[in-house]
User: Which sequence fits this backbone?
């Protein structure tokens, strides 16, 4: 079956909320090279201007990453590849990656993170070390995103606290004041609004003003989400999925992020200064499914002019 143009999909009658539609304005989404290969035409799925992150999984050749970035850039999408510190051998390798992305795909933004491997494969073990090289500033990158963990991260804080995570965020806040690049926190996905609201409020109270791009898991089978949530260390909000799994009337129905988005959107509407700037989707049930659901709920505006770049 051929894909319908994006505009026609968005015109279909669907449930909408004004606050959710505003909250979804400028959403971003994530792909991997192997999943991108299965998409015939991204312009039929995503609104013009949608920022597309490209996840770099250990073992993926840099050539595949750059080719995916070029394809998306050629289609008119702002591209944000991952730079996982622990799989980058050294500063020379980092410089080579930056040069390839810039030279072949015109990339000028990046998500810097530690990466999913337990042991560093080279000189770097965290995103802060990547920033300290100065290579992104030297290359004139316009936007740098770093990881945020609303429910903590046991790999960083094995004792269950968030002491090290918060120290790292304070460091990144200070770095944001020295770089010309715009910075933001791109977070792990969650399933419940309350922990997210409390975390964002805490950041602001502690002087961490980096805007938050909140991670949201797109529609997917419940079993798929539980598997990814456990693997990614999702915290207390995992109980939302566990509770759903115990309800036989919902067990076989696909999960949709309606509730968490509604609650966060309502909070943002009531508190305009609330620190969430954008929604970032993890399309765990497939990018086509995620893109269609988002369009039906009003996410059809692309990246707002106020935060492009």
Assistant:
């Amino acid at each position: 079956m051929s894909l319908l143009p994006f505009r026609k999909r968005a015109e279909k009658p669907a449930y909408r909320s004004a606050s959710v539609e505003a909250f979804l304005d400028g959403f971003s989404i994530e792909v991997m090279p192997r999943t991108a290969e299965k998409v015939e035409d991204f312009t039929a799925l995503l609104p013009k201007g949608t920022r597309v992150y490209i996840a770099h999984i250990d073992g993926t050749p840099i050539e595949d990453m750059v080719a995916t970035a070029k394809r998306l850039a050629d289609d008119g999408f702002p591209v944000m590849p991952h730079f996982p510190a622990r799989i980058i051998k050294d500063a020379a390798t980092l410089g080579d990656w930056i040069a390839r992305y810039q030279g072949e795909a015109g990339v000028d933004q990046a998500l810097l993170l530690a990466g999913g491997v337990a042991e560093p494969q080279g000189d770097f073990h965290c995103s802060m070390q990547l920033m300290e090289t100065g290579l992104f500033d030297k290359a004139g990158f316009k936007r740098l995103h770093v990881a945020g963990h609303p429910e903590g991260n046991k790999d960083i804080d094995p004792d269950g606290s968030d002491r090290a995570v918060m120290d790292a965020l304070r460091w990144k806040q200070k770095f944001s004041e020295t770089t010309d690049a715009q910075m933001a926190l791109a977070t792990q996905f969650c399933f419940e609004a309350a922990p997210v609201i409390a975390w964002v409020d805490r950041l602001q109270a502690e002087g961490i003003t980096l805007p938050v791009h909140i991670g949201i898991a797109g529609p997917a089978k419940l079993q798929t989400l539980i598997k990814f949530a456990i693997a990614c260390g999702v915290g207390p909000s995992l109980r939302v999925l566990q509770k759903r799994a115990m309800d036989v009337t919902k067990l076989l129905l696909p999960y949709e992020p309606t509730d968490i988005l509604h609650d966060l959107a309502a909070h943002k509407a009531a508190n305009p200064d609330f620190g969430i700037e954008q929604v970032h989707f993890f399309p765990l049930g497939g990018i086509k499914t995620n893109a269609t659901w988002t369009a039906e709920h009003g996410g059809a505006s692309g990246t707002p002019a106020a935060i492009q770049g």
Q: What stands out?
A: Residues 1-14, 301-309 have pLDDT under 50 and may be disordered. Residues 6-302 form a domain with the TIM Barrel fold (CATH 3.20.20.220). The first helix runs from residue 6 to 10. The chain has 13 helices and eight strands.
